[in-house]
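[recover] target loaded
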């Protein structure tokens, strides 16, 4: 028999807070249980930070339960309060446009079949468009205590800083009402979300108990951070890693995961892949014995790229990344792939007529910050052009070196690669 979903989530490090787990286990065992997770359209695309929830919902489905993917057509127009800063209101049209794109992404992670575990796509506009302000204040508002709401961390922080509008203050009620509506419509008994959602989720649990005298559960996943303690899934520049390939290229996506530190590779494999315990244990052992192989990182990057962008893209980006870092043939990269890769790494230009040397090539894309540093890199054996080590400071490229008549791939050390356009 396969492992219980709650035990699986626990060894994967995916449980932060919960209401009574034994009670939830009983309801799951009587399953299929309907659960939900909500996604607000705060941008044109979901991002890596949404992966934990997306995958957790998918894990429940694989374990024989029914996930409801709730798109926040209404809540997205209000905005879940952040720790700092009131959000700017977004028009209804923009929210709708965003939702169209996000719905497609949500649908990728779960199966929509007619079985009792087939996923459901919902939108909370379906009820918020109907309920009047008066009814809302009477039927929902009356069950929420301002005293309790004021004691919430985010609210306290905002009150101490820039304050908060009534609009954002009401968000808790909206999400709580969603849970009630989904409970009534589909018998939804569990809401999952990130640990920052705990208050919003138990708000719904309490509300359902008060008005329907029924038990519903709450489960949160931990906030995932990277090695610098930043929220997981932020690029080095601090921007989000988007699921949309037009916004974050599959190459950058892959590169982010292939570069995670050794101590995070295995925890990430547990949280972000469907690999079994045995497969992950094996990779953990390999990482402990031979960290330089970066086997865990590579598997992580491959799995996540395939999950989000498909196998074909994974093949292309692995090829490109291997070629760029000297473990494959650069000559085998087609022009489109090479161009796509060059769009993702630092690049610069040199003119052949200026008789550039390796020092200029390292400087042009900013792989070093000075001529001195460039010379040092050459001396230390850390300078490469098209994967060939260059040991002579006076080495000069020729037109024939340019890949597809245009690019030199320049690398400093093992990890820093860039491109130099060779102009006449
Ligand atoms: N508040 C959630 C999104 C959400 C919206 C509506 C819900 O009913 C549930 C969750 C977030 O900010 O991530």
């Amino acid at each position: 028999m396969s492992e219980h979903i709650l035990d699986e989530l626990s060894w994967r490090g995916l449980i932060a807070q919960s209401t009574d787990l034994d009670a939830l286990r009983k309801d799951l065992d009587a399953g299929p249980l309907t659960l939900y997770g909500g996604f607000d359209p705060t941008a044109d695309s979901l991002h890596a930070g949404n992966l934990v929830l997306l995958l957790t919902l998918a894990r429940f489905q694989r374990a024989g339960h029914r996930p409801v993917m709730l798109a926040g057509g209404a809540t997205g127009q209000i905005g879940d309060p952040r720790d700092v800063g009131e959000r700017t209101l977004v028009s209804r049209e923009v929210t709708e446009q965003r939702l169209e794109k996000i719905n497609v992404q949500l649908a990728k992670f779960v199966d929509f079949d007619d079985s009792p575990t087939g996923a459901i796509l919902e939108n909370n506009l379906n009820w918020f468009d109907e309920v009047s302000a008066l009814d809302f204040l009477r039927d929902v508002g009356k069950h929420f205590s301002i005293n309790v709401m004021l004691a919430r961390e985010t609210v306290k922080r905002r009150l101490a800083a820039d304050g908060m509008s009534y609009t954002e203050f009401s968000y808790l009620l909206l999400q709580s009402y969603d849970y009630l509506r989904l409970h009534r419509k589909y018998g939804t008994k569990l809401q999952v979300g990130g640990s920052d959602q705990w208050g919003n989720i138990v708000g719904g649990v309490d509300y359902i108990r008060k008005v329907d005298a029924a038990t519903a559960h709450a489960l949160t996943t931990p906030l995932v951070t990277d090695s610098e303690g930043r929220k997981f899934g932020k690029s080095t520049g601090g921007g989000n890693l988007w699921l949309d390939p037009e916004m974050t290229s599959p190459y950058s996506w892959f590169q982010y995961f292939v570069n995670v530190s050794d101590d995070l590779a295995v925890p990430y494999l547990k949280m972000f892949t469907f690999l079994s315990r045995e497969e992950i244990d094996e990779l953990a052992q390999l990482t402990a014995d031979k960290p330089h192989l970066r086997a865990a990182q590579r598997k992580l990057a491959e799995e996540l790229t395939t999950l989000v962008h498909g196998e074909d893209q994974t093949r292309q980006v692995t090829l490109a990344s291997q070629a760029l870092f000297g473990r494959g043939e650069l000559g085998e990269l087609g022009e489109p792939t090479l161009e796509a890769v060059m769009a993702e790494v630092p690049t610069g230009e040199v003119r052949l007529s200026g008789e550039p040397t390796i020092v200029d090539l390292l400087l042009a894309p900013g792989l070093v910050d000075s001529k001195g540093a460039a010379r040092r890199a050459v001396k230390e054996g850390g300078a490469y052009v098209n994967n060939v080590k260059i040991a002579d400071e006076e080495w000069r490229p020729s037109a024939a070196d340019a890949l597809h008549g245009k690019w030199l791939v320049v690398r400093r050390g093992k990890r820093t690669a860039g491109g130099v356009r060779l102009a006449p």
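[recover] notes: The chain is about 45% helix and 10% strand.
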